[in-house]
């Protein structure tokens, strides 16, 4: 028995953020998880560029890669999990992990880039704390010298 999937509901109810942007980098899709992770409501995010969540020091590199992907229709990231810093609405830094998907028109030209995003800030901070503790223990024991 075939089951019809309601993809709008799937995107809206997903635990990970689903963010789509058009050829110029303007946000055209922002689900509830994106609001939870980044703090911006759907109305605040839609129509804005990805600068909304991209730290200023990474914007030039982000846009250079974005333009190349839109022009060539090729991304080297595909199923690769990317880990980068991002911005929350309140200005604090986040650590996010995401994959991207290219959505194409009937002629095969990329129209949108969709990112599936997970907040890894807590995990990243825990890992950082553990590394610092390990470094302290190794120094105390004279390991690694």
How would you describe this protein?
The chain is α+β, with helices and mostly antiparallel strands and 145 residues long. It has helices at 7-13, 32-38, 42-45, 59-72, 121-141; strands spanning 17-22, 27-30, 82-87, 93-104, 110-119. The relative contact order is 0.15.
List the SSEs and their pairings:
Blueprint: H1 7-13, E1 17-22, E2 27-30, H2 32-38, H3 42-45, H4 59-72, E3 82-87, E4 93-104, E5 110-119, H5 121-141
Antiparallel strand pairs: 1-2, 1-5, 3-4, 4-5
Pfam families: PAS
Organism: Allgaiera indica
Domain PAC: 80-132
User: What is the share of helical residues?
Assistant: 25-40%
N-to-C series of helices and strands: HEEHHHEEEH
Q: Provide the CATH top-level class.
A: Alpha Beta
* Class by SSE composition: alpha+beta
Overall, the morphology is globular
Considering the protein shown, what is the CATH homologous superfamily?
PAS domain
> What is the average of the pLDDT values?
89
Query: Which assembly state applies to the chains in this document?
Result: single chain
**Alpha-carbon Rg, integer:** 18 Å
Low-confidence stretches: none
Concise structural overview:
With 145 residues, this protein is of the alpha+beta class.
Keyphrases for this structure?
single chain; 145 residues; alpha+beta; Beta-Lactamase; 5 strands; globular; PAS domain S-box-containing protein; PAS-assoc_C; PAS
